[in-house]
Each structure stands twice: as structure tokens, then as C-alpha cells.
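User: Could you walk me through two proteins back to back? I'd like the raw sequence and the C-alpha cells for each, with a short line separating them so I can tell where one ends and the next begins.

Assistant: Of course. Protein one, sequence then structure:
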Amino acid sequence: MSDVIPSSLRRYCSSRVQEMPDNQIVAVADLARHDASVVRLWIGEGDLPTPAYIKQAAMDALEGDDTRYSYSQGLPELRQALSDYHRRHWQVDVAADRFCVSIGGMNAVTMAMQAILDEGSEVIMPTPAWPNARQMIEIVGGVNVPVAFDFHPDGSIELDLEKLFAAVTDRTRAIFINSPSNPTGWRMPLEDMTRLRDFCRDKGLWIVADEVYNHFVYDKGVDDSKGPAASFLQICEPQDRLLVTNTFSKNWCMTGWRAGWVTFPQGMDQLFARLCQYNTTGVAPFVQRACIAALEQGDDFIAHQVKRCQASRDILVEGLTALDSVTVFSPQGTFYLFFKVHGLDGSSLDTAKRILREAKVGVAPGSAFGPEGEDYLRICFAIDPELAREALDRLVPFLSALADAPQGATV
């Protein structure tokens, strides 16, 4: 928004950045970040602390003065640990030199877009979608082309591949897929992943796959497995036009550590080395030592988190589904619950602020994820099941009263 810059400076600042919308999730969270009475379900992070062995690895590195510049793409030991991690969980061999360590998942997406986009390049993205990825396309000069998910009255979500393919033009450079998806919890069927791979091979397009939530899957999902979700790395060759972004934030409760990675095709290591050098000059080495510990010792912690999320998910889905005024899209993956509130009098942002003010529950407005998310809300259920019950006890009366109130009335 151009009015965030003083008029005396506006003409001298980037018009592209000035026109960026504010992040609505942050706008809600900033209203009550330090209010201990609020049940905080707005931002995508778990409520558990980082495991002790991860913190200890960082402290040991600090004590050993491992605080200097290091390899731009990441420590060789960390890149090998990433290779071992993928082999262990997805039975796929990805060479260590195909990984680039990043400053969190956001920097991973940034470098992926910088690597492939020119001014005016189009990226097709199913929506509602994570706002940071949408905006990063614009920041680097690309054009975001949204293709809406199909939301069905029975609470199911589908992505129509024919609509996705029809959106391709001669300016299209990539298709961005986040599966399991933030905010919807949708999970791409393996059959559709294969169709998309074949289409992109035929058209000379990139797939940019954000696979941050692959471990967070529930029930027997769309590929008939309990988890983790399928990765595009399992169905693509090392030379395919595939970039996979990921982060240490979610699996190991390391959101504040700011570490992630990109997996790129064989032979692009020097390009990503340049991007690292000119974007960040690499990730702090003591943080990378903590990441190695997470990869090598953290499988049990991931399983514990997923089991805990499953319990909280079930509590919230059951409780909200009982409301006639709410349509719940039961997530197949991630740790987000996306639900539609019928008959809203006002925007989803206004509703999120009212819920915060009156019910003391922090939720994310659906409009934060694009205009297709209006009338929806998102809650993060990476929380203790008892806290999920508390959130439900606060949300149900509010949503029930909201549905019963005359238009224009205040609950």
C-alpha cells in the first residue's frame, strides 16, 4: 500500500514493494501477541519447545567457536544428512550436492523464484495459498496466476488439473504446488502429481513444490498411505525441472531458528551458490549443527508431533462440524483447519479481530490467503489437545451467536 511510505519518499521507493498488501495474519497477531489470556491459533507453529538435543548441538558449536563464515550452500555434513533423511523417509536417492541450505522456508522459496523467473514470468498457483509465496513471485518481478480450488458442500476440496493446465500461457514459467496445503489441508493425489509432472515435462515448465508439511498427514490419505505424503522427488529424475522447498521450522519446532533448504536439479549447484552468496552469505554454522542433530535424532519427535496434532485435529473437526453455520474442510495434511462461516456480516479479517476481542481466540482470516479465502477462517492445531478443547469451548458459543444474530448486529 503506497500510503505506508511518507509522501516525500514515495517516488523514490520501489513501486512494486509499495503496492504489496499487508500480511493480515500478522495484523491480527500483533493485536495481542503478549496477551496471555488468548488461545493462539493464528500463526503456523507448534507450541512445543525445540527439543533439547537440537539446542545442545547449537550450544556445543558455540562453545567450540563455530561462528565464522562457512560454505554458502551449507555444511557438507548437513547436506549429507539431508540426503540420508530423504532416503530414510521417501526411499529416494538425492545426491548431497543437490541441496542448498537456506534462511528458513521463506528464503528457500525466494531463491527458487530468483533462480527461474524473469520479469513478467507467470507462476500458476492453486489458491487460497500461503501469502508469502504469492508475494515473493511479485517481488522478483513475476506474475502470480491463481487457480481456485473447488470447495464442495460435503467438506471436500479438489484441484481440477484441467483448469490448472488451461491457465498456462506462453509466459508461464512454473506451477507452484504446496501439498499438503496451507491453509486448506488438501493433499495432492499421487496420480495427479504424476499427471502434472508429465504435463510440465511436455510443456517445458518448472514445478516448484513446497513440501514443508509432508510428515503431517492423517488417516489413509489420497495415496492410500498413512504418511509421509508423497514427494515429487520420488517421481522425478535428477534432471527434471523440479525445485522442492522445505524448512526445519515445522517438523522440529524450530521456527525461530530460521533454517530450511532447497532441492534443485543436478548441475544447478553453482547457481544456488551464487544466490546464497548474494542473498545471505549462508546460514549460521552453529544453527546448521543444530539442524544436523534434528535430522539425525528427530524422527521420534516428528512422530510425537503428528500424533498430537491428530488428536487436536479430531477434537476441533468434531466440535466445529456440529455447527450448522460452519462448513469444515477436514484436513488430509498440515496442521491447519480451514472452515467456512456462513452468513458473515463483514470481512473475514473483521471477524478474526472480533473473535480475538470477544472470544480470546487468535485465528487467521481466510482473506489472508487470497480473495478466494473470504468467508473462511484458518486455525493452527499444532497444540496440546487440552488447549484445542479450550479453544473449541470459546469458539462454539461465539460462532453460534454470530450465526443467530441479525445482520448488522453486534454479538
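----
Protein two, same layout:
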Amino acid sequence: MSIREFLGFGANASHSGSADTQTVRRIVATLEAMEPQRARALAAFAFILCRVARADLHVSDEETGAMERIVIERGGLSEEQAILVVQMAKTQNALFGGTENFLVTREFDKFATREEKLALLDCLFAVAASDESISTAEDNEIARICSELQLRHEDLVAGRARYREYLAVLKKSPPPHAA
């Protein structure tokens, strides 16, 4: 049985009412050699990482590199696979992020353990901090994701505290130039 059939994406499968999103389906299709649940989790994980990286409407090279490293470390993928997964997730997020963000995060919430959600939270801050500054938009997006994952506010505060030095809102502004 292929991963697509296992997940109900065969030719006869009805897409209406499916808990899976089109985004997750596309990424999962590239990972058919993996165990289906692992591929599903990895697809959602990568998409959510991209969600934070794109919160300020730009994904930097540093953020892309951080996502690839995280997917290699946490997902156990080769560098080539990680690059593919991250690039696909970036593309899907750019095209469908506005409509899929909540759906993919809700799907991740359904199958992830509390420990996996907390690990994701740390990874979200790591991606946002990879360019040495967590913008207010990125921080707000992480807070939304934390809420969608049904994590406590204390979890968000603890995660944020580990990356405090990168929060743009807490950085000193340069002095104004004399005219």
C-alpha cells in the first residue's frame, strides 16, 4: 500500500472533508518511501517552520539554512531530502499559506505529543532567530501557532525567554542622526 492510499489520497478518495490539506499531500507524495505517519508529521513540521520564516513576508537565506538543518536533525533526513522538503514547504507556504496555515497546524496538533509540540516551538524560535533578529511579526506568528497547538502561555513565554536576545522589540534602536 502506498502512502497516498494509506492517507486516503487514491484516485477514488474524496478530498472534501479530508483532514489532510493539499499542502501536506504534496509534500507527503515526495516522501512515499517513509513510514506514512512520519512523512505526514515531517510535512506538517516543515510547513509550520516556513510559516514563521515567512511571517515578515521574506524568507532569508539564514532562515532557509536553519530550516534545512532542523529538518535534517529532527527529521533524520539526508541533506538532499531536507532541501527538497524545505523548498516544497516554502513554495506551498508562499502559494497557500494564507488559507493553509491554520489547517496544517491543526493537523499537527492532532497527532503530535506535548513534547513534540514543545520541540516545534523551540524550532520556530530558532528559525526566527537565525538572522539574529526575531521580528514582531515572527513573534506574533509563533504566539498564534502556540495557541493553535493548544500550548499554554507559560510555554510560549519560556520559549521566548530562551531567545530573548534576538527579540527585535527589545533591541536598542540606533541613535538618530544629527541633521
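Helices lie at 3-6, 22-30, 36-53, 61-75, 79-111, 114-129, 136-148, 153-162.

Let me know if you want the two compared in more detail.
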